[in-house]
Queue: 4 jobs
Job 1
Amino acid sequence: MPGSKAPGCPVVTYDHTALRPIMGHFAELDDLRAGSPVWWNELEPGFWMFTTHDLVQEALQTPAIFSSESQSVFHPDPPQRFIPTHLDPPAHGMYRRVLNPLFTPRAVEKLRPMASDVCARLIGEIAPRGHCDFMAAFGLEYPTEVFLRMVGLPVADAPSFLKWVETFFVGHYGTDKQPIIDAAASIKNYFADVVADRRQHPREPNTDFVTYLLQSTVDDRPLSDEEVLDICFVLVLAGLDTTKSQMGYLMYQLATHPEDRRRLVAHRELIPNAVEESLRASSIIAGVGRKVAADTDFHGCPLKMGDMVLLSVAAANRDPNVFDRPGAFLLERGPTRHLGFIVGPHRCLGAHLARAEMAVLLEEWHRRIPDYRLADGTDMLERGGGFAPLTLPLVWDA
Ligand code: HEM
């Protein structure tokens, strides 16, 4: 039975998916990490939690024990297996070899002018208003349009993607799960049509992602329609809401710390540091789930095959044993060993793209709106799961 706890291992009931006041989860995770590197979390159905940088990093780099067969601590046996997320090495690597070339720093650099154009246009629409809810007005539209242009799909389809992705992630809070199931089905149906079309009418693989996948091979055989569909589905769910959420924390930090914002406006060379600090100090990744593949004593923790473990990236990224003043957002802090995109085989495929999108956001936003703040009387809440500010009401002089 999964869920056997170690004698002496501290026990907690902590719901990383719950709503909290903004930054509330980070404070709770700081307390958990200070209390113990390992917890047994009694939140149904029960799972381990690792909270320190060394344990989280080691587990991420040990896929033979910490399998991605399930990535949700709530569903040890997921009904569907997605590519590449649910695969372990060596099968996982075959698919990453197909996908990696599209997301290299060089490939992303070529996309930067397009991302800047999209970003500047969207900000140009908002700027004269003098206020916006950043999350609703901008947060999802920007990465969605960049993604559609990158993979060669019509930008006219953006409103559908916005609706599906928003329903999929925000819908987790309702008791009625049907809208989430419907949104997932809509995304899959959309790509099923694209795959069928590209089978009949292949396009230029350099600019059309689905054609590229259909012409790719794993293990000396072409990818099947189902595999292509799976990959497209994962990309949509992995790449849009995540970028929106992380941008939300970045902008929240700058809206509430005018001295940081002014420094960044004056010193654009600090933009990469700002992006990394947001990924570190306010990582949206509460934790990634892994399934224990074999009975193991992991640093004294008696893991049983089938147990689930939440590797808390957000806690690890603020570990005082690795980061000086870990809770502080320090623009002068250079590159760090943060785990915001994790490490190991499943390290984020879109990390360079996400970094570029966030850097472009700061460049373009500050060019147009250098001075902004939170709207008065704002009680901000943070979503759990993948953490995210629920709303981010900003005001500025138009
Ligand atoms: C700030 C934004 C982002 C953050 C914080 C983030 C974070 C992560 C993390 C932590 C994982 C590992 C999940 C796990 O193994 O359990 C991951 C995987 C992944 N991410 Fe991202 N991501 C972001 C943006 C993107 C973007 C823009 C894309 C592409 C459009 C993307 C595509 C993927 C894919 C395909 C995977 C699965 C990789 C694999 O299993 O090998 N992500 N991401």
Job 2
Amino acid sequence: MYPLGLAQRYPYGQWWLGAHASEVNRTILPRTILGQAVVFFRTESGSAVALAGTCPHRHFPLAKGCLVGDSIRCGYHGLTFDASGRCVHIPSQDKVPPAFAVRHYPVVERGGSVWIWMGSSDAADPALLPPLEEIGLGAAGWAMEQHPLVTIKGRYELLIDNLLDLSHISFIHETTIPGGGAVAAIPPEVIDTATSLNVRRQAKGMPGNPLLKLLFPDYDGRFDQNFDAEYYGPHLIRTGGAIAAHAATPGESSRPLGITNFIHAITPETPTTTHYFVVTTRNFRIDDERIARMNFGMGAKIQPQDTDVLESIEATIDQVGDARRELVCGADAGAPRASAARRADPRRTRAS
Ligand SMILES: [Fe+2]
């Protein structure tokens, strides 16, 4: 996390994945994001809404209230707030003082998810979203599986560090990611793009394995496979990447077979807990239910392995705190750079 510190500051100047679109409906969804209680719901015409999650009157959770048309009514004394957060009704009085309001958060629904802006509303620009369609989120020609949300008892920086160093695949996921045993031995290459920092490991001439056989049943040879860890910001990392038929003879080029991604959306819940949304995408055999089932099955095995590691580390931080120093080795090609980029961008740590 470079450096490791007990005091956490949230990056505010960006979109965070607040909820998958399917979670936001006509039932109030409470979720704590960047330490703030939020409620999500949909208006009768289908627009996603995010408001502060506690009534400003007596601080009762609004999730325990109910929807009345496009408004939300507190379950304690009946104060009612419209979709902009303005109080529109106080029982027992005719007038509503202007101070009676809850915060309204900008949201954008894209790529199958509802993205929320926790900083100053004026700065909420949808152009700041990562290139979601490029990586298969809500894009034509791609399959997408949204995995169940896991909330980790560990700070979000631990998850970023985890994902940007995929050499850990060879150790904690050796049995759950076929071919993963080879990853740690491949030196990473760091590729800067206009919107990302991609830590790439390229496995060349890999033998087939049960996973690759299921993905590409008509191909019998060796594979070239990218193990990318592409950082778009603290909110989004893509792992996986292109898989190709290995060129059998020197001078020949490999033949692309397809792209398979694990998309990791990282949303701080509190200073020491993190919402972890995983979405798998691929641009081939998009209607094949067996691949979808396999992706869900792999996710259900892989995610608890990472969660266990991160929660174990979080448990040590209180004990060692700022006194602890981390050591940087060759596999850490990406994490320190991503951390430096976060620190260098003041926009990201301003609350408003
Ligand atoms: Fe992992």
Job 3
Amino acid sequence: MGLTLKNPIVPSSSPVSYTLDRIKMVEDAGAGALVMYSLFEEQIVQESRQLDHHLSYFTEAFAEALDWFPDMGAYNIGPEEYLVLIQEAKEQTDLPIIGSLNGLTNTGWTTYAKLIEEAGADALELNIYYIPTQTDVSGAEVEQMYIDLVTEINATIDIPLAVKMTPFFSAPVHMAGRLVEAGADALVLFNRFYQPDLNVTDLRVEPNLVLSSADELLLPLRWTAIMYGRVPTDFAITTGVQTHVEVLKSMMAGAKVAMMASELLRRGVGRITQVLENLTFWMEENEYESITQMQGSLSQQHAANPDRFERANYRKTLASWRDDPAGQGLAFK
Ligand SMILES: Cc1cc2nc3c(=O)[nH]c(=O)nc-3n(C[C@H](O)[C@H](O)[C@H](O)COP(=O)(O)O)c2cc1C
């Protein structure tokens, strides 16, 4: 992506970057870089509609109508404050700062990509969070929406662009290649979809923000290992990175960066320092001189036919089941 980081541990987009104080703590903890929490398309559009509204009526008499727009609540501050925070973070820390835009359509809000660049961000991460629910929109059309948005934003900025992609494409490797062709300088695997639960007593849909666990690493780990060497770009892994072991696995699969959110929200940003210490200790014990040395060492780069390899592994995994491995007669009772 063109950024030189002192180490591969990067807090991903989350409340860890809400305030300047927190950003300074991230720097003190030793992170390689920081991805800011996202500025959302809806926020930008809402702000500009409010402005239009005030300009055209010179009154706030109709302000109640604005309640219709989804309330971002306390999640984060407005677009202008976001830019100021990036500017302050750049002035008051030495951290590489990656701005984050979260949206879907390529309408006016994408100008914020340039504003984030002008505020001093070293790079931009684009998170396209979209759940296609219409029966008449095809997979090909959804993919094209992604490509159009990446093309548009890439044309707007001069700083590097990372795309945080979803794993839910029919052909993720092909799609990753298209995103890179459209202008992504790096791919972040993967966007984590929040899955609301149903409350059967109150008959309600319940938003459900569960922090991740380390076994969720396996999905981005596998796809990074598959894409490394096949899609010409840099990879960052997000989801399930909690200790130096997940960082090592991410690097060996082929990522250049291992991102952390849940673990930092759970245990504080001081966790970065511990993970770095354990990582360094492990590398010394195992005689690694650099992170570069291990990058991609467990990728599928050299598998002649990864489809076959995946299929063989699938069969091997199913066949590894033993009815009663501990000999305690527990199975099938
Ligand atoms: C409270 C919270 C807020 C988040 N906000 C954003 C966001 O604004 N933009 C974004 O791209 N990802 C956001 N994420 C997703 C994280 O950046 C990350 O990709 C995801 O949590 C998986 O990583 P983890 O397993 O280390 O938590 C958020 C996650 C959490 C838990």
Job 4
Amino acid sequence: MPSLALGVDLGGTNARAAVVDRDSGEVVAAHKEPHQDRSAEAVVAEVVGALRSAAAAARIDLQACGQVGVGVAGQCHSKAGTVLNAPNLGWRNVPLGPMLSKELGLPVRIANDLAVAAWGEKRFGAAKGLSDVILVFIGTGVGSAIISRGQLHEGAGGVAGEFGHIKVRPIRPTTAVRTCGCGMTSCLEAYTSGVNLAARVREDLQAGVRTLVRDLVQGDLSRVSAAVVDEAYSRKDPYVIGLWEEVADLMGTAIANYVTVLNPSRVVLGGGVILWCPELERLVRQVFEQQASRTALIGFDFARAHLGDDAGVIGAALLE
Ligand SMILES: [Zn+2]
């Protein structure tokens, strides 16, 4: 009988619960529930329902697993079990851990979604066996998680690794200052996330900029994405060359600074803006190589995230 664990990936649109084999990292059974209502009470009921369905599919008793881990798309204070701020759920200071624990009759661990993804990659993915690793995620949003001495580094207030909100200055003076979803200006995420890149290219198209991107989306601006922009780069579109050089400079320099300060042995790259944009990934790595401290590069490498959407439930289930 394999040793099983329970993990939940709680996002802005749904909750996915899974039963995970502790020894192999395999997802034995999973169940996804879309949010009908984002109130904390309704979401707790959904998570409980999703866990019961996943456990039933795996033919196990929920109580037999001993603990539930939850990765939340938001800032968390793990020790208190509190979600400090989850914009996609509209939550502030929700005591999710204690609420779930009361309903389930089990101890509940919560952590940020990227922290649990990094933990999943450390246990069974691209960072397996390494003790000092950073996960950098560049997708819809931009974020990171730090594993130091084999443990998740959460910081004094539980919010370490907020990589998307470090401040940056684009190299081109013509680039306007952009406001981030967090309300501040000049955040890395405001210039480099998938959502913000698409918004920026759409604004430029509406302002009449000439670029191959317009042809690639056949004039339908809702189809603009980082992957389409990357395709235009490979066809040497001058507008995109300027944009991609700027984005790569910001991202490559930011990752280089991170590695210079923390000296990890690997950075695991995840998220569609890196994984589905080979030209941008190449440019980011070039800038990184130029900017990182020479000594921090000894024994260092990059890897691409392996576990995809399962990283969150696997990492959550195996939280210690
Ligand atoms: Zn921000």
